[in-house]
Amino acid sequence: MRLVEPSIEWEQEHCTYIDEWGQNRLIPSSLNLEGYQSYSEFIAELDKRKKGDGKWLPFSSYFLVNDDNRILGMIDIRHELNDFLYRIGGNIGYSVRPTERKKGYATLALKLGLEKCRDLGMKEVLITCDQDNIGSAKVIINNGGVEAHSETDSDGTVKRRFWIYL
Ligand SMILES: CC(C)(COP(=O)(O)OP(=O)(O)OC[C@H]1O[C@@H](n2cnc3c(N)ncnc32)[C@H](O)[C@@H]1OP(=O)(O)O)[C@@H](O)C(=O)NCCC(=O)NCCS
C-alpha cells in the first residue's frame, strides 16, 4: 500500500473512484474532476494550484493505492493554515471509497500522509472533523490526535479540532 501523486496514468481509476462516490461532495475537493474538459487539463491545473496561486495555499494530494493499483483513498495536505483552515478546515483532508470503508485504510492513509508532513518539515498538523463524524475522529485519534477546542462553521456545523505533533 502506498501514496502516489495524481498523474495522467491514474485517469481511469480516479474516475471510477468518483463514480463510486455518487452525489456526495467529494473529499478532498482538490481532487474533484468537475469542470475540467480533460484529465490532462485537471493535472495541469493541479500542478499550478499545488504551488499556491492566491486562492489556494500550497498543498500536496495523493491517492492511497493497493498492490493491484486500485485507488482506495485520497488525502490532501495543506502545508500552511489560514484563518479558515485554522478554525474549520485544518491541514489535512481524506476519504476512502465507500466500498472499502471500515478496513483501516483511512487510518493508514493518514499515517502515510503524516510521513509526508514530516518530510515537508511540518512540526504539527491540525485535523478537523464534523462533530458527528465518529469514523474520522477515530482515524485522527488512532494517529495521535490531541483534541483542542471545537469551532462552529458558518452553517452551524460543529467542527472537532485535533493537533498531531510530529
Ligand atoms: C471517515 C472515513 C475517512 C473513514 O474511513 P475508514 O477507512 O472507514 O476508516 P478506518 O477503517 O481507518 O476506521 C477507523 C476507526 O473508525 C471506525 N469507523 C469508521 N467509520 C465509522 C463509522 N461510520 N461509524 C463509526 N465508526 C467508524 C472504524 O471501525 C475504526 O475503529 P477502530 O479504530 O476502533 O478500529 C470514511 O468514512 C470516509 O471517506 N468518509 C467520507 C469522507 C470524510 O468524512 N472524510 C473525513 C473528513 S474530516
Annotate the secondary structure layout:
Layout: E1 2-4, H1 11-21, H2 39-49, E2 59-65, E3 71-78, H3 83-89, E4 92-96, H4 105-119, E5 124-130, H5 134-142, E6 146-147, E7 151-152, E8 158-165
Antiparallel strand pairs: 1-2, 2-3, 3-4, 5-8, 6-8, 7-8
Bound molecules: coenzyme A.
Q: Could you tell me the radius of gyration in angstroms? A: 15 Å
Which regions contain 5 or more consecutive residues with pLDDT less than 50?
none
Helix % is: 25-40%
How many separate domains make up the residues?
1
Structure ligands? coenzyme A
- The CATH homology group name: Gcn5-related N-acetyltransferase (GNAT)
CATH architecture: 3-Layer(aba) Sandwich
Shape: globular
Strand content: 25-35%
In which order are the strands of the major sheet placed?
Answer: 1-2-3-4
CATH class: Alpha Beta
* Straight-line N-to-C gap: 22 Å
CATH topology: Aminopeptidase
User: Structural class, from helix and strand content?
Assistant: alpha+beta
The arrangement of helices and strands along the chain is: EHHEEHEHEHEEE
Summarize the biggest pleated sheet: 4 strands, antiparallel
If you had to describe this structure to a student in words, what would you say it looks like?
With 166 residues, this protein is an alpha+beta fold. It has one domain (2-122): Aminopeptidase (3-Layer(aba) Sandwich), CATH 3.40.630.30. 32% of the residues lie in helices and 25% in strands. It contains five helices and eight strands; from the N terminus they run βααββαβαβαβββ. The strands form two sheets. A four-stranded antiparallel beta sheet has the order 1-2-3-4, with helices on both faces. Strands 5, 6, 7 and 8 form a four-stranded antiparallel beta sheet that branches. The protein is globular and about 40 Å long. Bound molecules: coenzyme A (COA). Coenzyme A binds next to strand 4, helix 4 and helix 5.
